[in-house]
Amino acid sequence: MGVVAVLSFRTQVLTPSTAASSTTTVASGSASKTSTSTASSSGASGTTTGSGAASPSTSTTSVPAVATGTAEETRYGTVQVRVTVSAGRITDVTAVELTATDPHSEQINAEAVPELRGQVLSAQSAQIDGVSGATFTSDGYEASLQSALDRLGFTG
Length: 156
Known about the structure:
By secondary structure, the protein is α+β, with helices and mostly antiparallel strands.
């Protein structure tokens, strides 16, 4: 006879900067897991939604998990990305913050970010080649992405 134990641990810290919280329940077999995440209005902290501590790379559910990486300061501005993982695969990467200090940097970012996104979706990791001529943006993008993937426990 098998014994199934389901543990539930919920914490929520409310601060003046707390903007929203969300709860996601993931069903797996005969047990379900609930995780609660809180988003900060500052945008600089990571937001994780989805399957909690379970590694999306081994999950059999298709509930998307979303995390925002750290805001990376580069020589030419700040880069921060949000990643979505579903069914053990990176399905989307978006730039949450992409500042530029001048019009030329804005043009470089506009051309580099779609290429970086494509590289991530192809590589299914933060181990990407980057874009020639956009080294600082590429490095910031990769670092922010890796922090988001780490928050999700994604090992690719």
